[in-house]
Amino acid sequence: MSTLKRNLVPFAAYLLCAFFVLKDPYRLAESEFSSGRVTGRLLELDAFGFFFFVGAALLVLLLPRIASVVAVSACLLCLPLRLYFVAPGLYRQFFRGEWSGPARAYFVADKWAIQTMVGVALAMSAALYHRHFQRSKLDASDRKNSSPNASGL
Predict the structure, then answer these.
(1) Which of 20, 26, 27, 22 has its CA nearest to residue 124?
(2) Confidence (pLDDT) at 144
């Protein structure tokens, strides 16, 4: 399989995740959600995650192993905002402070957050698999090129 075909799957996965992260059905950036002490930071992490996904998609064509690390970082940056929508009660326990309203429940089945988390999990698995595949390919080529007499003994 050629390098371009092998890099096409992670490229598509990273761009798809960038689309999922960019999609904002609640218009959070335009609301008071963006000015909160905790929630504003979650939106900033999410924005960084978007740029990391785009960077990983571009890097996968040139430096696939580095792109895998960048994609895993992007996944970890995007996860807290989605966890806030799925488990708002837990966030209120960890981050004490003044909240504008009561929590609806500890866990909420938010369709947008769950869809994005599944997409991010798929991108993370693609990044880790791709990184492992590249590493095992390099190890196999090192074994093929080395000879027993080249050890210098």
Answers:
(1) 20
(2) 60
CA distances from 55 to 18, 51, 69, 91, 100 (A): 10, 6, 11, 30, 36
How far from each other are the two terminal CA atoms of the chain, in whole angstroms? 38
Dihedral sign (CA 13, 16, 22, 23): negative
Domain limits, the chain: 3-151
What does the block give as tokens for 143?
Answer: 């074994």
pLDDT tens, 46-93? 999 999 999 999 999 888 889 889 999 999 999 988 888 888 888 788
What is the pTM assigned to this prediction?
Answer: 0.76
Exposure pattern of 34-52 as b/e (b: 16+ CB <10 Å)? eebeebeebbebbbebbeb
Long-range contacts of 33-40 (CB under 8 A, 24+ apart): 37/97, 38/91, 38/95, 38/97, 39/84
